[in-house]
């Protein structure tokens, strides 16, 4: 069985009254056209599909021998697509005299479990709101194929299926806010098929580059399960402790996106028997053991248990893929990276960034990750942000067969030096997506940290966005047509307002072990907003300069969900209100086992206190953040003070650690936030 014609998609990407973008990945080159329909219906009964006169511009990028990425721009012949209207679409694939449609691939049959249509509709559908109608948003982050628990995208698909004809309830945007893939935490069963599929997609040029980057005596580890940690730590200078099967080649990054989005790719894997048993791996010498010979039996037993557990989780994940694809085929989708899309701890410090950039292999892997991110995620967010120069540089980097070629060097440097991944989504209100990874500013002064009776020096946490970065974001926001005194949505992959009780627990019991280098499992990174007072103040003061009516902050990353309201009073006059909703993870429950029990105990013990009392915080001229009310005269002038309130869910908790995806609806000045999961919890904010 050969590769499927449609490798992944279609996915509805950026949608505006003047244009609709559709993304799709194919295994061969074809001509593509599109048709948009206006769907007339009443009382759940569809009457007719009226074709609209449109023009399709097909942008194509050959990313490998068998990987063609298409971004279709569909524009109306008239000025705008009709708002407040259900719109459907079909695609036409032309090769020679033969023309296929989505129906040709059995994607439009409502009886087919792989169908990408809802209910009795003939086509996948979407809506464009009127400029005065607030959008209904789905939002979440952190989705890993071998993650624990149920995939929350399945719950989102069920919701859209139930409301697909109700435009007052149907979500009209999906925000994926980081860690759409895990490049550093790859399941053992995926490694053999990842390397095989990656080569088939991208071709042999990548292997030639890796032969130049990796010593000959270590190159065999690329094809061995559990074999890459040494390469990742000592050649690439990465800090992840889960790099046993880390993505390295561009084709592997592409394969991981297909694993995460495409049910058809799993048909191909099963038909070609690429999913191997642990016994088959042993017999083919595809397992790397890190221990001495006399300890190998115990190590093999440990790896087999891990392999079987991950295999079970991957099989459960595959079941949800058709739902995830249907959701993205019918909901305009906007995506921003966090660290795991590239590697854990990506740009966490100046030391990390410098060490990786100085490593040929480390720099190469980041280049591959960014190229794949652009093709699979970034391109559809704001296509006009990527000019011909950018496209040509990425082509030169991917297509090069040697690290000494000019195309490779200039393309790789262009990707590393590109800092315009942020964008504004055309939602109502507008949504500005922040890039908190490539626009950082580092303070090189060491900071003393006390660990028990020891004092160590550690790198200061960075400003997640530099002053220049904020200027670029402000320019883009104002150019988008957003105006002050109107609401604003802000997506920050890491929450601006954390959950103090959880962070305190992690800081007290977990972080000291992490600093000392002990292998403690935690999903919390200590490079968040609040760990740099200057960066925290820069965020608040920048938003204040924009002067929105209020701001809705949407975040993920931390593997728990919460709702927070903050009112900020500036000493210079003026107020700002922030409503933060965090939804994480979509599919990667982390607080399980002993840590999960301890975490739930902390939540239970502190929930009443947080529900009944506001927290107060202030920031002085030295940018130190101080908890508590400031009734006394201080040595320095305050810049601002704020009160913070945690909003509880229906069960009384103020945080949820199970897999979920947020559903946010604005109705009559009311923000209604619901977590979609096996059991729904909801909370509205007046």
UniProtKB/TrEMBL annotation:
What is this protein called in UniProt?
A: PhoD-like phosphatase metallophosphatase domain-containing protein
Q: Which PANTHER family match?
A: METALLOPHOSPHATASE BINDING DOMAIN PROTEIN, PHOD-LIKE PHOSPHATASE METALLOPHOSPHATASE DOMAIN-CONTAINING PROTEIN
Note the superkingdom of the native organism.
Bacteria
Q: Which lineage?
A: Bacteria, Bacillati, Bacillota, Bacilli, Bacillales
